[in-house]
Structures are given as structure tokens and as C-alpha cells.
Amino acid sequence: MSYIMDLRKIVGHRPLLQVGASVIVVDENNRILLQLRSDNNTWGYAGGSVDLDENVEDAAKRELYEETGLIAEDLILLGVFSGKHMHNTYPNGDEVSNIDIVYVCQKHHGDLLCQKGEVEKLKFFHISDLPDNIFKPNLPALEKYISKKAGN
For residue 113, what are the contacts with CB-CB under 8 A and spacing of at least 6? Predict the structure, then answer.
């Protein structure tokens, strides 16, 4: 995260291209794990910025562990999401154009633990009962995941 913070010192709130690595965790009941974000009070999956020279899959595993306490045993690529619908302005005014590389994780272990300062709550949801206030840049990946599940 220091890379993005270092850039912010130079560019202020202007839009940055940001590469993210994210994970949709699925439990044994086919529910997905969402976290209530501290910054904007919306629900989303675990994920964050890829550090300089970091392997994307390693970044996804790191973010999952930092935000939820879970350790991924396997990751399956869901897709790469980009475009205008991935643009976001955070409550502090920072703007980003996200490229999000999203994985699905069905095999994991560990104890759920909210990351202080970033995650208020962790909860598993059935895909037919997702909360209304989903973090907008997470919608394309969630829609693709739900569509794939419906096709099975």
C-alpha cells in the first residue's frame, strides 16, 4: 500500500490506475463471504492493491488473510475486470480506475477475523440474498460469479 500512498503524495486526489487482487470466498454451503467496509459502509469481497513486483496471486492471498484471517488453499481465476464501471472515488476524495483480478476460493482454513480500521463485519451470504449496498466496483465480478453458478 505504500506505493499508492507515495503516489498520492505527488498527485493528490487525481485519478490513479490501480491494480487490485481480490478473492470471492465460497463456503461449504455455497455462500460467499462479504465484508462490511469501514471506509464507505458497503459490502464487498476481500481484496486490495498489488504491491510493486508482487505476484498477483500472492497479493490476493495476502489481502484475504489481512482482511479476513482466512488462508487460501487454492485460487481459481474468475476474471479481470476493468473499464468505466470500475472507477471509484473514495470518501477521502482519492480517485482510482481499478483493474481488478478476481479469484474464487473454495478451499480455505483459518478463523474469521476483521481487519481493524478496514473491515467492520464479515458475513457469508447466499447469492440469492446479497445485501443491497454492494461496493460498486465489486458488482461486475459478483455478477459474473452468480451467472456462472446459475449456468451450472
Answer: 68, 69
